[in-house]
Amino acid sequence: MRFTAIGLATALLGLATPVAAGAISVPFEVQVPLVLKALTYDRNLKTRGGDQARIAVLLPPKGGRGPADDLAAALNGLPDRTVNGLPVTFREIVVTDAAALEAGLKDQRWVAVYVMPGFSKDELAQVRRVCEAKRILTVAAAADEIERGMAFAIGAQSGKPQIVVDLAGSKACGSEFDLALLRVARVIQ
To answer: Are the C-beta atoms of 138 and 172 separated by less than 8 Å?
Structure first.
């Protein structure tokens, strides 16, 4: 299903809760549908994903399951999980090191990794390197991790959700977002 820029802008008018840096500023119930809508604007999605839009949920080796459980609850509430006609699947991967990440992403064609909070700056750099090599979009659950190397996030501006795209980072990960999405996003050059 293709969404219009007006429809996407309308969806962005939902509420977001302001929180401290490092925390998830937009609840997954709002974040996930916006991420899936935004992926419809990725011109390279089908090339990278093949017959499915596979999204790996990356969990840090240390830390609670809280964000991953919140994400799972939001996913259970989604009535339709398709992007451009492709079924969307999610799979958790605990990332203990680069080898574990490589092994977790080895056997499938992935369109994105959804990075849960709790990774160090060095671990995020490692995730980005692996994903750039494999052409997988890095989506941060916490928008401030865009500044730590992630390519895409849903943040908050004046209490409203806002798509944030690191343009160079998203291109390095194999994504090419349509101008209609970039017009409503905060783009980092």
So the answer is: no
pLDDT, tens digit, 9 for 90 and up, residues 119-170: 999 999 999 999 999 999 999 999 999 999 999 999 999 999 999 999 999 9
Check if CATH label 3.40.50.300 holds for domain 5-188.
no
Q: Which two tokens stand for residue 85?
A: 């006609």
Report angle CA 34, 134, 170 to the nearest 5 degrees. Answer: 40
Which sign, positive or negative, has the C-alpha torsion 183, 41, 48, 22?
A: positive
Which residues fall within 8 angstroms of residue 76, CB to CB, at 6 or more apart?
none
Cβ atoms of 78 and 33 within 8 Å: the answer is yes
Residue 155 β-bridge partners: 162
Residue with tokens 């409203």: 160
Q: Find out whether 137 and 173 touch, Cβ atoms under 8 Å.
A: yes
Residue 159: DSSP 8-state:
T
